[in-house]
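Consider the following input, taken from an annotated entry for Solute carrier family 35 member C2 (Macaca fascicularis).
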Amino acid sequence: MGRWALDVAFVWKAVLTLGLVLLYYCFSIGITFYNKWLTKSFHFPLFMTMLHLAVIFLFSALSRALVQCSSHRARVVLSWADYLRRVAPTALATALDVGLSNWSFLYVTVSLYTMTKSSAVLFILIFSLIFKLEELRAALVLVVLLIAGGLFMFTYKSTQFNVEGFALVLGASFIGGIRWTLTQMLLQKAELGLQNPIDTMFHLQPLMFLGLFPLFAVFEGLHLSTSEKIFRFQDTGLLLRVLGSLFLGGILAFGLGFSEFLLVSRTSSLTLSIAGIFKEVCTLLLAAHLLGDQISLLNWLGFALCLSGISLHVALKALHSRGNPEPLPEASGFCSSPCDS
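Applying the prediction step yields:
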């Protein structure tokens, strides 16, 4: 009887984990292809990102209110001093990471975007060393070399390579290294009470919106105000379709952050990291099949080399966590904003 109960518990945990991974895949892969699809007809990615931030803030505020009503416990609200001094740097880095990532979809394919964003692990390691969250080891040098070498092979003589788009994604990956390092430092400050991602999203979105607004005003403000697809609209039906499409992206972004949190809380951050590796493979296969992205044998070898570096990083984190309970910086972490997936 005890053995049967153990088997049932194991099967139930496996089914639950699989379901959470599939939910995470739906939101993560879905928002990547959504961004590419929308930017083909709506050429204002920064405005799109800002609207997504507003939707995420709305849903996180509603979620906080529902949890507070059901638990009868007040949610954390930071003071202005803590908000501006401790949250603002993370919010600005996150806004630039997400904004540049979405901007790049105007120029690059999903496959090049996915591969280049995978290099964020490289920058996370570099900044972890700078902020002394990691110690320099030979294994980490190998991780850096594998990811950097894989990125070079994937972009070398790529038939669909775009310099401007690649620079935007690489810049986003660089800032992403700062973002996730600052995010880890923010979450480790237990006195702030931002361990719950709903609270983190609630506090980050307003500052992210303000941080991205100057970039939007300079590069998109005038064009958006004179475009028939938004401010100079003449067709109300078209306006509603555009706003509906933008609102859908906000729902996907919020769902991604929440699904990552569920996966980590019900399993572990290691499960999320491993799922993230296979997610990259699925994204590239779908991009080649659905969008016709051209990926050569050399590109695939570069991608495999990069994934081997990421896998080594995940394995090192798993070994490190056995002897040290403190978390290492996550390449994906939970998404406290519209994820660049």
